[in-house]
Amino acid sequence: MGKYVFEVLQEVAKQKLKEDKIRILKENESWALKDVLRGTFDDRVVWNLPEGEPPYQASEPHSHPANLIRENTKFKYFVKGIKEGDSLPAFKREKLFLGMLEGIHPEDAKVVINMINKKPPKYITRPIVEEAFPGLLQ
Q1: DSSP class of 29
Q2: Which residues contact 50 (CB under 8 A, 6 or more apart)?
């Protein structure tokens, strides 16, 4: 298995040079990583969830039952304008979101919460994302 999304973002944040940040993003490319970056930086992605810190019970770092690398497929239920998400009642959508947060690594859960609040990861900017993954953002 590859690195957790939060591990990749932490590694990128430690780099001083833009080229090194881009290289690390490219080397660790995954749909989950790209979904998080797109969900954070792309203005067309509007989250259909309450802003702020949701009330959830974080899993233990050493025994979380799920992984963001697979759970990112649920993001479609949380975006406005996508049929799957718009058709869910708000309480079901929010319950599904809390379940995802409680199942994944607690550090990845923080990454997802920052994503829905449009708070970029430390030391990662839109130009870096655009250069690492051309065409990802609009």
Answers
A1: -
A2: 94
Residue 110 maps to a domain:
yes
Phi then psi dihedrals of residue 8, to 5 deg = -65, -45
Residues 6+ apart with CB under 8 A from 23: none
User: What is the amino acid identity at position 54?
Assistant: P
Instruction: Provide the residue-wise pLDDT of the chain in tens; the chain has 138 residues.
Output: 589 999 999 999 999 999 999 999 999 999 999 999 999 999 999 999 999 999 999 999 888 889 999 999 999 999 999 998 899 999 999 999 999 999 999 999 999 999 999 999 999 999 999 999 999 998
Domain that holds residue 66: 5-132
Distance CA 25, CA 66 (A): 22
Q: Quick one: which of 25, 27, 3 has its CA closest to 12?
A: 25
**Is 137 contained in some domain?**
no
Decide if 138 is inside a domain: no
> How many structural domains does the chain have?
1
Contact 86, 40 (CB under 8 A): no
